From TrEMBL:
Alphabetized InterPro entries for the sequence: Chloromuconate_cycloisomerase, Enolase-like_C_sf, Enolase-like_N, Enolase_C-like, Mandel_Rmase/mucon_lact_enz_CS, Mandelate_racemase_C, Mandelate_racemase_N_dom
Family of the protein in this entry: Belongs to the mandelate racemase/muconate lactonizing enzyme family.
Top-rank taxon: Bacteria
Names of the cofactor(s): Mn(2+)
The protein's name: Muconate/chloromuconate family cycloisomerase
UniProt pathway annotation: Aromatic compound metabolism
UniProt keyword annotations, A-Z: Aromatic hydrocarbons catabolism, Isomerase, Manganese, Metal-binding
Residue span(s) of domain Mandelate racemase/muconate lactonizing enzyme C-terminal: 146-244
Gene3D superfamilies tied to this protein: Enolase-like C-terminal domain, Enolase-like, N-terminal domain
SUPFAM superfamilies: Enolase C-terminal domain-like, Enolase N-terminal domain-like
Length: 372
């Protein structure tokens, strides 16, 4: 008898951030994770996670809507079904429900974790095998204050925890942002890569001026300068500047990647399991990008340990991750709900070992931080 899916729980968990995290569209003081627990008829459990940034500030799914989608629509389609064939289960979900990739990413992750535990293989083994065990991770400076950001960067460089930095800009006047970025780049020096993420805040003309200034300041990459749906602006800017563009909000799934590449985009793409609908789906984006000569970057929606590890298993299977990753989400939160936290060292992180994701929930912490 194949094991069947017995229960699916979606739990809202709120953990304060270590400092305010300021982006162009919101400032975060807390991160909310939707933790998904899928149990099969043998008693094994798979873990998944969906997060986003600032409620509805980043995209059309909020943590609360992810929970509602799972409880009301996705779980009833999965309960009682054989647990062992993830592709069949995903076809079943996608035949009856559209979009909602964050919710589907949490479900796909939990099914992979469950499958790995049943077969005694890691999630990266299920995805074809890890090429990397230690994966580079940058840090985002987003305190909103130039001097604080410089202190933060210098202590992280000294501790060898991170050597590359992403700065969140776009909420201030252009030249204020440029001065902020240039001061940080001058303070950290040439050995650190400094990139910026504008989170769609600029129109094309502002972006053109901003990119010229940032290029002169020695910045290595500009992430999503213009609105996500304006693919033509992203293409024109990528033709105009040597400074590479990282497409983030513009590319969720493999079809988006294909359209942007066909439109003539050159640069790189932020892969995110949340945007794509799970680790398997995010690797499909990577395949299309690679075929089009677009560079790869392991992106985050500031997931906690479960979501970050799911992404790390996927990124570990990629031959080249040209721009590294930003899987630092667990470090932005004051606490964690797992027994063993990730091991960040030497400007990167160790891929956990063991069956499935290789993670165990700390039940006391989960009980403490779950939304009452
Ligand atoms: C984004 O837009 O890239 C990733 C790092 C960070 O600080 O925010 C995110 C989301
Ligand atoms: Mg981004």
């Amino acid at each position: 008898m194949p094991e069947s899916i017995q229960s699916i729980d979606a739990i809202l968990v709120d953990i304060p951030t270590i400092r305010p995290h300021q982006l162009s569209m919101t400032t975060m003081a807390v991160q909310t994770m939707v933790i998904v627990r899928i149990k099969d008829s043998s008693g094994l459990e798979g873990l998944g996670e969906a997060t986003t940034i600032g409620g509805l500030a980043y995209g059309p799914e909020s943590p609360e809507s992810v929970k509602l989608t799972i409880d009301t629509y996705l779980a009833p389609l999965l309960l009682g079904q054989p647990a062992g064939n993830i592709n069949t289960l995903k076809v079943r979900l996608n035949t009856s429900t559209r979009g909602n990739n964050l919710a589907k990413s949490a479900i796909e992750t939990a099914l992979l974790d469950l499958q790995g535990k049943r077969l005694n293989r890691s999630v990266s083994d299920l995805l074809g095998g890890a090429v990397h065990q230690h994966i580079p991770v940058l840090w985002t400076l987003a305190s909103g204050d130039t001097a604080k950001d410089i202190d933060e960067a210098q202590s992280l460089i000294a501790a060898k925890r991170h050597c590359d930095f992403k700065l969140k800009i776009g909420s201030r006047a252009l030249m204020d942002d440029v001065r902020h970025v240039a001061a940080i780049k001058a303070a950290v020096g040439d050995s650190a890569s400094v990139r910026v993420d504008v989170n769609q805040a600029w129109d094309e003309a502002t972006a053109a001026r901003g990119m010229a200034e940032l290029q002169a300041a020695g910045i290595d990459m500009v992430e999503q300068p213009t609105p996500m749906k304006d693919l033509a602006a992203l293409v024109r800017l990528s033709e105009k500047f040597h400074l590479p563009i990282l497409a983030d909000e513009a590319v969720a799934d493999a079809t988006d990647m294909y359209r942007l590449a066909c439109a003539g985009f050159a640069g790189a793409v932020a892969l995110k399991i949340a945007k794509a609908g799970g680790p398997i789906q995010a690797l499909k984006v990577a395949n299309v990008a690679s075929a089009a000569g677009v560079g790869l970057y392991g992106g985050t929606l500031l997931e906690g340990t479960i979501g970050s590890v799911a992404a790390l298993h996927a990124w570990s299977t990629l031959d080249k991750i040209h721009w590294g990753t930003e899987m630092f989400g667990p470090l932005l939160m004051k606490d964690d709900i797992v027994v063993k936290r990730l091991n960040f060292h030497n400007n990167g992180v160790e891929l956990p070992t063991g069956p499935g994701l290789g993670i165990e929930i700390d039940e006391d912490k989960l009980a403490y931080y779950r939304r009452k």
